[in-house]
Amino acid sequence: MTREELLMLAEDLNPDDVITKDDVCNYINVILDAFAVHLDRERVRHGLWKRYGAKEQMRNVTVKSDRIEALLRDDPNLTQAEIDAALEECYDIINYTVFTARILTGLL
């Protein structure tokens, strides 16, 4: 998505300017990055996540969250490789949370 498209979307999603347009764009970019990870995983796993319930999805969130916490606890000055690994875990957390929400709302 281009910056201009994101700004137009920001107008629609945030008509009362509750947060800045830059915040909306940055938020959406993170979600899009997480979605790209989901697509990459789906190319290999072909919907494997659908075999597991909400409890198992949230267990994955906990495991990934624990990894990020341990990484940050050990040294707040992360290398680029560590930042990349933490971001990958963050994107997985977003996706597992979306899977959980889809299961709980019956949107499978």
What does this structure look like?
With 108 residues, this protein is mainly alpha-helical. Helices cover 77% and strands 0% of the residues. It is built from four helices and no strands. The protein has helices at residues 3-13, 21-45, 54-74, 80-105. The protein is globular.
What features would you highlight for this structure?
single chain; 108 residues; mainly alpha; 4 helices; 0% strand; globular
How would you concisely characterize the structure shown here?
With 108 residues, this protein is an all-alpha fold. It is 77% helix and 0% strand.
Number of helices: 4
Rg calculated over all Cα atoms:
16 Å
Describe the biggest sheet?
none
Mean pLDDT across all amino acids: 92
How many strand units?
0
What amount of the residues lies in strands? under 5%
Q: Could you state the order of secondary-structure elements as H and E?
A: HHHH
Separation, N- and C-terminal Cα atoms: 26 Å
Broad structural category: mainly alpha
Q: Shape from CA axes? A: globular
Low-confidence stretches: none
Percent of residues in helices: over 70%
Question: What is the fold's blueprint, element by element?
Answer:
Layout: H1 3-13, H2 21-45, H3 54-74, H4 80-105
Helix pairs in contact: 1-2, 2-4, 3-4
